[in-house]
Amino acid sequence: MLRLLSFALFLATWWIAALFVGGAKLPSPPAVLQVMIAEASTGALFLHLGATLARVALAFVLAMSLGSAIGYLMGRVKLADRLGDPWLILLLNLPALVVIVLAYIWAGLTEAAAIAAIAINKLPTAIVTLREGTRALDRSLDEMASVFAMPRWRAFRHVVLPQLAPYIAASARSGLSLVWKIVLVAELLGRPNGVGFEIGVAFQLFDTPRLLAYSLTFAAVVLVIETLLVQPFEARATRWRPRAA
């Protein structure tokens, strides 16, 4: 109920602002909705949205897989942590724009370059989160698994992974929010389709209704994924933790 009230307040504020500013700079909600319907009827909206979501999915899975493995290794092995820490600090502080531009220069304006650039920008946050999660593992549980002669894979599955699950969920949620932003920049700079590409075209044409139509559609999809997938996964991953009173 509160979410609906918040949405209604947003629409009312937007509509009133559009009346004062003017439709050229801030089109009204009906004008933007009309563009959305027009783009959807031609299939362009779904085509560009699908391209963006595919890039997000591939880059996210790649970054989470590599980041989880590297973070776990750095948390377990001190030598790996010492060798990897300087590079981790570098990646954490390297601007996303630099990574994207270098990827396009070195690998060309290709799909692989775009996905790699997005994944590299997400990678260090996943590594840091999983490294800290690995450092926080209960060593007594490792000793228990050793005493009971549990196979390594079984011990990892039933002892280590449940402890890491909250960190994986936190990394997934924060990382996904980062990927949503970076994918639009990557598309704006070097892809012939996607929401970021359409936003760039709308900017060049000073087509504010089209810009808002694609931006708000993208935001709506992000909100749906966050509500239906990310939040339930995070709740399930942390369900074993005691709740604060």
Automatic annotation (TrEMBL):
Instruction: Tell me yes or no: is Membrane among this UniProt entry's keywords.
Output: yes
Cellular component GO terms, alphabetically?
Answer: plasma membrane
Output the PANTHER family linked to this UniProt entry. ALIPHATIC SULFONATES TRANSPORT PERMEASE PROTEIN SSUC-RELATED, ALKANE SULFONATE ABC TRANSPORTER-RELATED, MEMBRANE SUBUNIT
In its UniProt record, which GO terms are filed under biological process? transmembrane transport
Q: Which PROSITE patterns match?
A: ABC_TM1 (PS50928)
Q: Supply the alphabetized keyword list.
A: Cell membrane, Membrane, Transmembrane, Transmembrane helix, Transport
Signal peptide location in the record? none
Q: Where in the cell is it found?
A: Cell membrane
One Pfam family, please name it: BPD_transp_1
Topology in membrane: Multi-pass membrane protein
Instruction: Please state every residue range assigned to the domain named ABC transmembrane type-1.
Output: 49-229
Q: What CDD domains has UniProt attached to this entry?
A: TM_PBP2 (cd06261)
Q: Belongs to which family?
A: Belongs to the binding-protein-dependent transport system permease family.
The protein in question is named ABC transporter permease subunit
Instruction: Provide the transmembrane region boundaries.
Output: 56-75, 87-106, 211-233
- Keyword Nucleotide-binding present in the record's keywords: the answer is no
